[in-house]
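Subject: for your reference before the review

Hello V.,

The reviewers asked for a structural picture of the protein, and I figured it would be easier to keep everything in one thread rather than splitting it across files. Below is the amino acid sequence we used in the manuscript, unchanged from the supplementary table.
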Amino acid sequence: MLFKLNKIQINLTRRITVITAFFMSIGIIGMNAHAHTPHDMVYAFAASPDYANDSTMFLITDGAYTGWRYNEILRSTDKGLSWTDIPNGMDHPFEYSVLRVSPKFASDQTVFAGLKGKGGIYRSTTRGDFWEPYNTGLAAWNMIVRQMEVAESSSGYVLFFADANGALFRRANTDTNWVQVLDKTNKVTIIAVSPDYATDNTLVIASNTGYLKKSTNGGNDWTELGNPTGSIIYDMAIAPGNATEMFLATPSFGIFYSSDGGSTFVNKGTNLPNEAINNIAVSPNYAIDRTVFCTSLKQSVFKSTDNGDNWTLFDSKAQITKQTSLLNELTDLQVSRTYATDKTVFLPVFDGLFLSQNGGNTWKQRQKTRRGILTGLALSSSFNSDQKMIATMYVGRSIAISTDGGTEWTTSGWPNPKERKMNFFDSQIVKNPNGTQTVISATAGRVGNSTNFGDSWTVKFVPRFPAINPGLVTFTTLAASPNFANDKEIYLGSRFHGVLQTKDAGKTWRLQHGVPLNHPTTNVAISPNYANDRTAFAATRSGQVWRTQDGGDTFLRVGTSSIKSIGWVGQRYTWVAISPQFATDNLVLVGTNNGIYRSTDGGTTWTKEIHTSVGANAVVQQVEFSPNFGADREAFVNVRGKGLFRVNLNGGGAVTASLNTTSSLLENENVQFTEFQISPTYAADSTILGAARESIYKSTDSGLTWVAAGFPDN
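And here is what came back from the structure prediction:
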């Protein structure tokens, strides 16, 4: 169990505010620059209660570095030196609100993740290797998790959580259902459990107005403690020692302290800054060392060794990025349960994860989980013979080239990618009529093409559109015309500018009419018969699908009433795939967080897929048709938390059969593809390549077996 103070979440849009601020900020150059590159935001954190021995911790970070990926839970077993994504079973479309680890993790290996958007709680009893819902007994309106804490009991654990309405629920490891212990009129926003809960059964809750209630029998009965601070409360911590001492962090009056179980409080804030205190945490060795830690809105970390009478500031190295609200900058503070041995303090904040191993005196960043992460793959149109491919990355090499099917990699000739720390999000390889190939890629404010497979590039600047956003245009996806050699057309999806189009390989640009601004574009797809039908599609992060049938002059929304995504805005990632036989079958598939939708009339009308593997409840991240679709009738569907499915389609585009091709990778190696590509020469080589954060996997038998390929690292 970690002894930490729980932040108040002012309202249910806080997480969306953080992510929106992130997307807004990274497109703004010359304004509030982030403290470091790449961005390493931490939205929730938990460490093993046996950290001194197992070095294990978990965090949630932003997976949307391409604009269409879901947040990820990562695990480290080496004190943060390396991190592993643990997605198996996380088959929901929602954002996370909180992580907690069982106090008896060493024996029960149990981790909990609380979700927003009516996702409830997921539990893993395999230290995160497999997750499943833990919601028995909850109604749909109780499944938005605002706050969660876990207490140690004589038989295991007792988990408490507050829902979006402020009701409080309890479930022990021996229970089969959740039990409501306080109704929504209590407006619970903070939960603090006693470090000695196994013997004193004590917890304290705070309402959204700062009123406290205390229970000494696990939540069955409550005592009113009033509002001792006269304000709301940002955080709360109970010290070891039968819950007689507790600390409150406030937005206006610093820290309040009680030595009589909450009956009376005194203000403690000598030499703390005159600003809100948003986090507070107590040493589990408090009876001996009297140590307390806290952060203010702008400074971290303060330490007291006399139970809060005096405070000393130690520089944590965490920076205020100004990319989110001030309350969301220094979001958390936790102390290792084995602090007496390891002296470890954790500061998971918007700027990253910072860690001290000497009681808070010195700090270093312990999480760099996004440098060199793969953001895209593109395969040569002659892959069967030349084995050439391109990988794009978040920082790292930016664009890397392989000429042996992904085993060895070299840096491309894009001008100064490392010096500029560019982030590339997509590439495409177009086969020209004369048999040559053109590689197209983009980074913030620049688009380039190469006719020698990345050795050198012609790079064009994309103009700014200050009326929309003052920064560089930041891209998420691109699609080039199949006839690029002649028409020079490229569609680019962006974070804030909707879809842009060039008809002269980047010399001039126009914003597309129709596709909404400030809704990140997750996918752009162009008809293989574009020269004749002038058709292209764009999908957005808000679950919308747009179509042009006049070469980009106008975009109109399709499937308005029939394509139904679920969840909050910001989690409705959408993907469009167009049949290679589109000229004759007019087949289009759309992947959503609510399964697949298909159209057989070019996108005018839509039908929901009902096959269990990719239908309802399937959170679809990517859909691609087999390049040999006319003969094999195959498509591939990447489902969050489940794996990559190879599906067979009938003449109407409905799924008739499916096979999970990566179940063994997901179950045995925690590998979930964030991007996959099918060889353009699939009819001859049966090759698929998948990228999973920092690894590339390859199958040469249509997904039946996989081997790890090389990785284009730094």
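For the response letter, the relevant points are probably these. The mean pLDDT is 90. The domain at 373-614 is CATH 2.130.10.10 (Methylamine Dehydrogenase; Chain H).

Happy to draft the paragraph if you're swamped.

O.
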